[in-house]
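Weekly puzzle thread! Below is a chain. First person to post its structure in token form gets bragging rights.
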Amino acid sequence: MHGARRKAHLVFIKGSPAPLPIESYNKKATNMRTASSASVFGLVFLLGFLFFSSSSSSCEASDSVYDTFIQCLASHSDPSPPASSIVYNQSNSSYTTVLQSYIRNRRFNTSSTPKPLIIVTPLVESHVQAAILCSKNVGMEMKIRSGGHDYDGLSYISDIPFFILDLFNLRAIDVNIGDETAWVQAGATLGELYYRIWEKSKLHGFPAGVGQTVGAGGHISGGGYGTMLRKYGLSIDQLVDAKIVDVNGRILDRKAMGEDLFWAIRGGGGSSFGVILAYKIKLVAVPETVTVFRVQRTLDQNATDLVYKWQLVADKIDNDLFIRVLLQPVTVNKNRTIRASFVSLFLGDAARLLSVMDKDFPALGLKKEDCMEMSWIESVLYWANFDNGTSPDALLNRTSDSVNFLKRKSDYVQTPISKDGLEWMWKKMIEIGKTGLVFNPYGGRMSEIPSSETAFPHRAGNIYKIQYSVNWSEEGEEADKEYMTQIRRLYSYMTPFVSKSPRGSFLNYRDVDIGVTKTWSYDEGKVYGAKYFMNNFDRLVKVKTAVDPTNFFRNEQSIPPLK
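Winning reply:
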């Protein structure tokens, strides 16, 4: 039984893998370890021509690359299972199913979306090692996908010939309650991770996102944000080890990779540095009983005053309490208004929660009947929008109920927005149309961890993070243009209220609007890199230069090496 879903009011925290595309193929050809420079250049030129030619030519290119790739994989990986069982070309009857199974944004699942020439689905670690070496041999860009939740699709699209290294088969989870740790392979979903922890212990959990189909690899490497961050910080704050395949095909653990690289893949995005195989995480304690609530108010129900007061306490209240605010334009009695939804997880019982709220946020007027006590695993299902009473087995379902067209953006707020400012925001949101906002509180443990301890920099000084969110179901370019314009307008209007110099962004809320690179120069990279990583960007560049000086692992927003 997978269980029914409540109508979604929550916006999933999706941390997606961020992988690898573009640059000039002839530049990469000089680094090929097999085949001469001339022959690689010729193959690259042919691939590029066929990639943008007719579909029949594309299939021919796919078949040719498939044959070459199969031969290479067979010579670089274990003979069992055979390489042919893990590689799909465009002629394969399962190609489309495999490709589309982990596309979580319909904007990147249209007839005009560039498709990979082949998809490689490793079953064992040696397949990953071989795929890296063979990518060099055939001169193709490699995209890395663990769950497909990269908001702007960088894990499975590119403008040049590419293949996808799809890690969904590498999803083993080994929970050790004795030392309160677990090894989690990159292709495992957060739902699977939560379920496997729950199988072994009802008093342990892990601080990560609410979207149960999100892949662990990208989510954790980008930071890993969830409802327990005020108590325990991010996912990366509970990492003790990792396994990564580097540009030379070596499998490295924390000791072998060194502390600089281990620092970088905790919030810097793994795909700039290698292929993350697995993380070793530290489990955290959760009480036998937790409490959730959802309280909704519209503007004529004093929502403005409540949101303003929330800003004053959200990052200072008890660390066991996380209160998210969803702000959505809605129609009530034929009038457009803003609905504010206060949605909470409290690591304790309802009686203590009511005491905390009465003391620190009495304006919300929380009552006992608003609160629901449950186990931690039940709260995971609640936050994933499942109906109350749904079996935890639902967390093992890797398929999303529905996939929308969507766009996300992010910001950080360091000074409370005034009531006048909020009222101006409401008018703009109603005027724009559909785009909503999600306010996610910081403080607590987040303020205690130095901004330089991991590559993720957004710590003390941030009251809350904003996620801009718009979904739509209408197909076509006009709808895409309309909704993309809406969210960009609201992002622009919010400029006076958010962090500055630079305006911060969250890597796991991938947003190519804030800058992309075509040359992987330091200056181009810093445009988006300073927003994602603040003062940590320069150290990330130094790590990148040390571990991948030829820039094999790259994408439109990857860390550039120093030339």
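Puzzle host: Confirmed. Bonus trivia for everyone else. The first strand starts at residue 87 and ends at 89.
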